[in-house]
Structure formats: C-alpha cells, structure tokens
Recover the amino acids of this structure.
C-alpha cells in the first residue's frame, strides 16, 4: 500500500481536532476558501461528480459539496473519516466517505469523476507519482485534476519547516519531511507521465505580519497545480 503508517498515525492522533479552527489544522481552515475558489473558478463545481483524495476530516470535501458538487472523500485514516462523517451529519452537508487507497479506487471507479482533488497529501506518501497516476485514472476524459503540495528548496525549508513548525508554531513539529517535498518540475513530470496535461500553477503565500494567506504567482513554497485529461 502506498502509505506511510507513521504519517497515518500522526494525523489520526489529531483527528478529533480537525474541525477546530484554532487547532493544528488552523492553516487548512484559513487556506481552504482560497483553494476552493481557485478550483471553482477553473471548473464550476455545481453538478460535478468530485472525488477528494486524502480528504482527512473533510474540510475541502464539505466546501465543494456546498458549491453543489456530488462529493466522495477517500482517506486511509479511519479516525479522520469518522470525524468527517460526524461533521457531515452535524452540518447537514452530504459527502460520501470511504476508507480506501487512491490506487484501489482508481481500479474500481476508473474514469467516473469530473473533478479529482488531492491537496496537501503528495508530500506525505512514499510514492507520489502513484497517487498522480491514480488521480488520472479516476477522472473522465475532459475532466480536471487539482494538486497542492510543497516545493523543495531552501526557502521552502525555511518557511514550511523552520518557520511554520518551530518559530511560528503554526503546525506540530515533524508535520513535514523536507525530503518528501516535490518541485513543480517533478510534479509536472508525474502529471505528464500519467497522461494529464498541466493547465496552470498558482502559489499560496503567507504574511506573518498580517497573518493572512493569499494566492500569488510565487510557487517557491506552497503551490497548486491545475491539470486536465485530454479528450
């Protein structure tokens, strides 16, 4: 299985705090509106069949469902999925959640989705190219795939590891393994090898003075990639 048991355990232990906007998951709550609107601007989510790979507690999954999408969320953390299910019941927002690997889902439901999202996950798995290939297998011809991850360079290490985990303490220490960060060139190659095409990149920046996140053209730390499967 393309998963690191230590990574699954790490996020499972924090699962009960997933929907607390003041918890370790505060950055996810704050960037979610930005990534949601970026995705929705590129492909109107209303009426689309969407799968969210590595959905965790369901922050993005629920927000896409609120836009009118028919959403399935998959993850390998049973505790996170239980939290996602409970929150869906509380919020009244319908999302189907399933404990299954992306590769297994791609075999079972090949080409069934209009949109595939995989956000903040690739840097946590042993073989990110396999996840990209699975995402390509899940999306329909003409459909869209969105990834987000962390670049690998000294600036990314300074900002995402030293700054976010040790200085600003925005994230628990050990959240990220710098060696697993992925450059845009590497991710673009994974995308092309999987039969997708890259349609656009967008950076996500954080201002420690204003404590505000914003989309920009700087992909040197956090970045998102929009892809599509040719007809």
């Amino acid at each position: 299985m393309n998963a690191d048991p230590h990574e699954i355990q790490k996020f499972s232990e924090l699962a009960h705090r997933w929907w607390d906007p003041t918890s370790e998951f505060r950055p996810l709550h704050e960037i979610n509106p930005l990534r949601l609107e970026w995705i929705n601007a590129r492909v109107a989510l209303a009426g689309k069949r969407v799968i969210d790979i590595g959905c965790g507690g369901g922050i993005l999954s629920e927000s896409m469902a609120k836009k009118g999408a028919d959403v399935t969320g998959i993850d390998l953390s049973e505790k996170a999925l239980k939290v996602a299910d409970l929150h869906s019941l509380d919020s009244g927002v319908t999302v189907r959640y399933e404990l299954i690997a992306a590769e297994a889902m791609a075999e079972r439901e090949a080409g069934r989705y209009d949109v595939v999202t995989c956000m903040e996950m690739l840097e946590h798995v042993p073989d990110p190219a396999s996840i990209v290939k699975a995402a390509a297998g899940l999306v329909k011809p003409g459909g869209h795939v969105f990834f987000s991850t962390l670049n690998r360079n000294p600036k990314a290490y300074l900002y995402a590891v030293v700054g976010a985990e040790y200085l600003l303490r925005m994230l628990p220490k050990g959240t990220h393994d710098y060696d697993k960060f992925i450059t845009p060139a590497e991710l673009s190659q994974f995308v092309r090898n999987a039969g997708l095409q890259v349609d656009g990149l967008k950076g996500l920046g954080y201002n420690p003075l204003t404590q505000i996140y914003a989309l920009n053209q700087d992909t040197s730390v956090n970045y998102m990639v929009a892809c599509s499967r040719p007809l």
Notes: The mean pLDDT is 94.
